[in-house]
Amino acid sequence: MSSTRTATLLKVTGLKVSYGGIQAVKGVDFEVRAGELVSLIGSNGAGKTSTMKAITGSLPMNDGAIELLGQSIHDQGPWDLVRQGLAMVPEGRGIFTRMTILENLQMGAYIRRDKAGIAADIDKVFTIFPRLQERRDQLAGTLSGGEQQMLAMGRALMSRPKVLLLDEPSMGLSPLMVDKIFEVVRDVHAQGVTILLVEQNASRALSLANRAYVMESGLITMSGDAAQMLNNPRVRAAYLGE
Questions:
Q1: Are 28 and 79 contained in the same domain?
Q2: Cβ neighbours of residue 36 under 8 Å, at least 6 residues apart?
Q3: How many domains is the chain built from?
Q4: Do residue 76 and residue 166 come from a single domain?
Q5: Residues 55 and 78 sit within 8 Å (Cβ to Cβ)
């Protein structure tokens, strides 16, 4: 395996995050290497979303270090991180509801100046999500939850991220739409995009991932090969309903 493939793109060390005196993240360490799909699983309230928000700078951290491509990203805003190759699809999607689908995708490429490349990538997003192409001039706020999730993912991809963060992409979606979203996650990863996936649907997340971390009460309690974890009795009992 080449050194490029195994280079660490995102590294989190000793991360601590608090909400009004409650420590949501209690000192976690993990990394995402180039070309990987890494899953962070755990029950609701385990600290997964707080971790993601700290990585993107939307939530201050109390202690620890976060590095992207070997450089500290402490105290940087989300817009700076996008320029450096980090894009996030947040829990709740965070789309621009009063803009059209096309305008949302164009906003995703705001750091870019290559008009031909942007147009080509919009076409690529529409190939991935034909439903968005059919509604390209429709206001994003009028879309269904699943369509909004598609748009949020498409918009993030427009920045051509080196690392894509996905926070609970299947939350609140119909079973059919969940299948579609995970299919897209698999395909995007297959195209070479490095992904950190936070997901309560542990079975689906582990089936897609190369490696995984289990988070419980603000701590990483288990890590390793995702396929092995999928067959781990403790993980199956705690997260797969067995």
A1: yes
A2: 194, 195, 210, 211
A3: 2
A4: yes
A5: no
| C-beta separation of 182 from 15 below 8 A | no
Supply the pLDDT for residue 38. Answer: 98
pLDDT, averaged in runs of 10, over the chain (242 residues): 66 94 94 97 91 91 95 85 92 88 96 96 95 96 92 95 94 90 93 94 94 96 95 87 61
Last residue of a domain, one of 116, 137, 160: 160
Helix axes 101-108, 145-157, angle to 10 degrees: 30
Q: Computed from CA positions of residues 132, 95, 211, 1, in that sequence, does the dihedral angle turn out positive or negative? A: positive
Specify the pTM. 0.92
- Residues spanned by the domain of 101: 92-160
Same domain, 154 and 135: yes
**CA distance linking residue 18 with residue 62, whole number of Å:** 7
